[in-house]
Amino acid sequence: MILRANPAGCRLWSFAPLATVASAIIVGCSGGDGPPLGDVAGYVRLDGQPLPAALVTFQPDGGRPSTARTDEDGYYELSFSRSESGAVIGPHLVTISTYIAPDDEQDGVPERVPASFNEKSMVRREVLAGQNGFDFDLTTP
After folding, report:
1. Is the pTM of the predicted complex or chain greater than 0.85?
2. Distances (CA, A) of 133 to 57, 76, 78, 120, 130
3. What is the rounded radius of gyration, in angstroms, for the C-alpha atoms of the chain?
Protein backbone atom coordinates (compact mmCIF):
# COMPACT_ATOMS: atom_id res chain seq x y z
CA MET A 1 0.00 0.00 0.00
CA ILE A 2 1.40 3.41 -0.96
CA LEU A 3 0.33 6.73 0.54
CA ARG A 4 0.10 9.55 -2.01
CA ALA A 5 -1.02 13.14 -1.84
CA ASN A 6 -3.15 14.51 -4.65
CA PRO A 7 -3.00 18.11 -5.85
CA ALA A 8 -5.87 19.08 -3.50
CA GLY A 9 -3.79 17.98 -0.52
CA CYS A 10 -5.88 14.87 0.31
CA ARG A 11 -4.20 11.60 1.06
CA LEU A 12 -4.93 8.78 -1.35
CA TRP A 13 -4.14 5.16 -0.68
CA SER A 14 -3.02 3.09 -3.66
CA PHE A 15 -3.75 -0.62 -3.47
CA ALA A 16 -2.35 -1.37 -6.96
CA PRO A 17 1.00 -2.75 -5.74
CA LEU A 18 -0.75 -4.96 -3.19
CA ALA A 19 -3.20 -6.26 -5.82
CA THR A 20 -0.34 -7.02 -8.22
CA VAL A 21 1.57 -9.02 -5.61
CA ALA A 22 -1.56 -10.91 -4.53
CA SER A 23 -2.47 -11.90 -8.08
CA ALA A 24 1.12 -13.02 -8.78
CA ILE A 25 1.01 -15.25 -5.71
CA ILE A 26 -2.35 -16.75 -6.69
CA VAL A 27 -1.28 -17.46 -10.30
CA GLY A 28 2.10 -18.81 -9.18
CA CYS A 29 0.54 -21.26 -6.74
CA SER A 30 -2.21 -22.56 -8.98
CA GLY A 31 -0.30 -22.69 -12.27
CA GLY A 32 -3.23 -21.04 -14.04
CA ASP A 33 -6.81 -22.19 -14.29
CA GLY A 34 -6.10 -25.92 -14.51
CA PRO A 35 -5.20 -28.51 -11.91
CA PRO A 36 -1.68 -28.73 -10.47
CA LEU A 37 0.62 -30.75 -12.74
CA GLY A 38 3.87 -32.67 -12.39
CA ASP A 39 6.27 -33.18 -15.30
CA VAL A 40 6.44 -36.83 -16.40
CA ALA A 41 8.97 -38.40 -18.77
CA GLY A 42 10.75 -41.70 -19.26
CA TYR A 43 11.54 -44.59 -21.57
CA VAL A 44 9.52 -47.55 -22.81
CA ARG A 45 11.34 -50.73 -23.85
CA LEU A 46 9.89 -53.97 -25.15
CA ASP A 47 12.04 -57.06 -24.65
CA GLY A 48 15.04 -54.84 -23.95
CA GLN A 49 14.64 -52.71 -27.11
CA PRO A 50 13.29 -49.14 -27.38
CA LEU A 51 9.60 -49.12 -28.34
CA PRO A 52 8.97 -46.31 -30.85
CA ALA A 53 5.53 -44.85 -31.68
CA ALA A 54 3.84 -46.27 -28.57
CA LEU A 55 1.02 -44.26 -27.02
CA VAL A 56 1.63 -43.75 -23.29
CA THR A 57 -1.45 -42.67 -21.31
CA PHE A 58 -1.65 -41.64 -17.66
CA GLN A 59 -5.31 -41.64 -16.58
CA PRO A 60 -5.89 -39.99 -13.19
CA ASP A 61 -8.58 -41.32 -10.87
CA GLY A 62 -10.60 -38.25 -11.84
CA GLY A 63 -10.03 -35.80 -14.66
CA ARG A 64 -8.35 -35.56 -18.02
CA PRO A 65 -5.61 -38.02 -19.02
CA SER A 66 -2.14 -37.03 -20.19
CA THR A 67 -0.57 -38.68 -23.22
CA ALA A 68 2.61 -38.95 -25.28
CA ARG A 69 4.02 -40.91 -28.21
CA THR A 70 7.43 -42.46 -27.75
CA ASP A 71 10.20 -41.42 -30.12
CA GLU A 72 12.68 -43.74 -31.88
CA ASP A 73 14.55 -44.23 -28.59
CA GLY A 74 11.37 -45.10 -26.68
CA TYR A 75 11.45 -41.73 -24.89
CA TYR A 76 8.22 -39.93 -23.96
CA GLU A 77 7.18 -36.67 -22.26
CA LEU A 78 3.54 -36.41 -21.21
CA SER A 79 1.28 -33.56 -22.36
CA PHE A 80 -1.81 -32.51 -20.43
CA SER A 81 -3.04 -30.18 -23.17
CA ARG A 82 -1.69 -28.49 -26.29
CA SER A 83 -0.11 -25.79 -24.17
CA GLU A 84 0.73 -27.65 -20.92
CA SER A 85 3.11 -30.52 -20.32
CA GLY A 86 2.80 -33.00 -17.48
CA ALA A 87 0.06 -34.90 -15.68
CA VAL A 88 -2.35 -34.16 -12.84
CA ILE A 89 -0.73 -34.69 -9.45
CA GLY A 90 -1.97 -37.90 -7.85
CA PRO A 91 -2.49 -41.60 -8.69
CA HIS A 92 -2.83 -42.75 -12.32
CA LEU A 93 -3.62 -45.89 -14.27
CA VAL A 94 -0.94 -46.27 -16.96
CA THR A 95 -1.55 -47.82 -20.38
CA ILE A 96 0.87 -48.32 -23.26
CA SER A 97 -0.24 -49.30 -26.74
CA THR A 98 1.08 -49.53 -30.30
CA TYR A 99 -2.32 -50.35 -31.85
CA ILE A 100 -3.67 -47.97 -34.50
CA ALA A 101 -6.97 -48.87 -36.17
CA PRO A 102 -6.97 -48.95 -39.98
CA ASP A 103 -8.97 -46.29 -41.79
CA ASP A 104 -9.62 -45.14 -45.34
CA GLU A 105 -6.27 -43.36 -45.54
CA GLN A 106 -3.86 -45.82 -43.94
CA ASP A 107 -3.33 -49.39 -42.84
CA GLY A 108 -3.57 -50.10 -39.14
CA VAL A 109 -0.71 -50.94 -36.81
CA PRO A 110 -0.97 -54.15 -34.78
CA GLU A 111 -0.63 -54.23 -31.01
CA ARG A 112 2.87 -55.25 -29.89
CA VAL A 113 2.42 -54.52 -26.19
CA PRO A 114 1.13 -57.26 -23.86
CA ALA A 115 -2.49 -56.75 -22.72
CA SER A 116 -1.28 -56.40 -19.11
CA PHE A 117 0.00 -52.93 -20.11
CA ASN A 118 -3.00 -51.74 -22.14
CA GLU A 119 -6.54 -53.18 -22.20
CA LYS A 120 -5.96 -55.17 -18.98
CA SER A 121 -3.49 -52.78 -17.36
CA MET A 122 -3.24 -52.66 -13.60
CA VAL A 123 -0.06 -50.54 -13.75
CA ARG A 124 -0.32 -47.53 -11.43
CA ARG A 125 2.03 -44.63 -10.81
CA GLU A 126 1.81 -41.68 -8.43
CA VAL A 127 2.61 -38.31 -10.07
CA LEU A 128 4.17 -35.82 -7.66
CA ALA A 129 4.82 -32.09 -8.03
CA GLY A 130 8.05 -31.38 -9.94
CA GLN A 131 9.91 -33.90 -12.09
CA ASN A 132 8.76 -37.54 -12.33
CA GLY A 133 10.70 -40.22 -14.20
CA PHE A 134 8.90 -43.44 -15.04
CA ASP A 135 10.58 -46.06 -17.23
CA PHE A 136 8.64 -49.11 -18.41
CA ASP A 137 10.46 -52.34 -19.31
CA LEU A 138 7.86 -54.56 -20.97
CA THR A 139 8.28 -58.21 -21.96
CA THR A 140 6.23 -60.26 -24.36
CA PRO A 141 4.85 -63.52 -22.97
Report:
1. no
2. 14, 10, 11, 23, 10
3. 23
Structural domain range at position 75? 37-138
109 phi, psi to nearest 5 deg: -120, 125
Please tell me the distance from the alpha carbon of residue 97 to that of residue 86, in angstroms, as a whole number.
Answer: 19
Residues 64 and 105 in one domain: yes
Q: What is the mean pLDDT of each run of 10 residues along the chain (141 residues)?
A: 48 44 38 86 98 98 95 98 96 97 90 94 97 97 84
Cα 136 to Cα 62: distance, rounded to the nearest angstrom: 23
Give the separation between CA 103 and CA 51, rounded to whole angstroms. 23
Cα–Cα distances in angstroms (integers) from residue 16 to residues 7, 11, 93, in the given order? 20, 15, 45
In the chain, what is the straight-line distance between the N-terminal and C-terminal CA atoms, in Å? 68
Q: Name the residue type at position 28.
A: G
Q: Are residues 89 and 122 in the same domain?
A: yes
The H or E element containing residue 23 is helix 16-30
Query: How many angstroms separate the CA atoms of 94 and 66, rounded?
Result: 10
Based on the fold, state whether residues 55 and 122 are members of the same structural domain: yes
